Amino acid sequence: MKRFRLRDITPRGLYARSMLMVIAPVVLILALMTWYYYDSHIAEVNRKLGQSIARDTSLVQAYCAGGNDAGLDREMISKGLDLTFTCDSQEDDFNRSTYANVFSYSRTLDEELETRLEVPVDTALDPQTSMLHLRFPAGGRTAEIVVERKRVLTITSHFFIVWVIIFSLFMVTLAIGFLNQQVRSILRLAEAARAFGRGREMPDFRPSGANEVRDAARAVIDMKNRLTAFTEQRTAMLAGVSHDLRTPLTRLKLALAMMEPTEDIKAAQSDLDDMSMMLDEYLTFASGEEGDEAVTFDLARLVREIAVGFGPHIEVTGPQSIRVRGRPLAIKRAVTNLISNAMKFATEAHVTLVDGPHAADIHVDDNGPGIEPARREEAFRPFMRLDEARTQNTSGTGLGLTLARDTARAHGGDLRLSDSPLGGLRASLRLPH
Known about the structure:
alpha+beta, Beta-Lactamase, Heat Shock Protein 90, 11 helices, disordered N terminus, transferase, HisK_dim/P_sf, HAMP_dom
């Protein structure tokens, strides 16, 4: 199954799929109705009309063949059947270049006439008067009947199609208007969810659209509010605990400094230094979370400024400018942690910037011992220090990669570890545009 991603939702794609879902059934229904109407209903109606005119024509044939001996009266036939006929039709009167010998359902009419009369019948339509001429042999003579076309064939069937098309267009227009409203609401919801996932605010976002879309929007807003409250509580707790512990920690350090130095005292002082470093990181993280707002800034410039702080031996390659939106202090802290980790465990570090179509990537490579692929996820656990060559004889709290990944995911991106072209470890930080 393909994994669903918010960035896969685009206005053009969603609108096209929605229109296809609406227009395709309407077109299919219209085609089926037209086929049924013409193939079944209209064809059967015209066949019945052809049979009816064939019966009337047989009376004219009998009259022209037998005359008064057939017991038929010319005036009675003309008035009773509401048609005009002659038993002595001239060739020139019938074969006119303006007449149409083939028209809608003309074959059906010819079949019914020839089946009833048992003689060949020539049919022609005068397009100017809409009168139908039927010419056939009768008793050694040539009879011709002139009758209105609408009496022989149904000619108003196209009105049905016109009304169906008008009604279908009306329904499609209503559907398009409705879908526009719903698609706009869904796209707004996707945009808001994407923004919330990247740590951005959308103060003008309001639930709209169908009830289901409104419920989904309210659920997203509620989830965002809960996550925000949780983050604020965690930040406040870290800041409070870190601040409260600094005073007793300082007293302990002062007390140890006044004692006679021994191996135990030095070990205790080392432990206190590690605790102090942890508290400093907590306070830095907490202060950054509280005061850092999402803005649009130049990521490439920020990374190069960070690299300069580590010295000229940190090389940065890639675009000179990459515009992203996020919290600069948090991203600066994350990139600083990545470069600092690389410098702790290696003699060479390199930073590569990549500006992709959907996101910007920051690759930090080193030539250190690296981390086994099976244990790379463990490196992101808080306070985790792997007992390998990469972490031996090094100081730290074990929070650098954890906070860096939290920062990346708070911006809608991620942080991954892989093999480096330099032979060590590559840390890849991705930030969506």
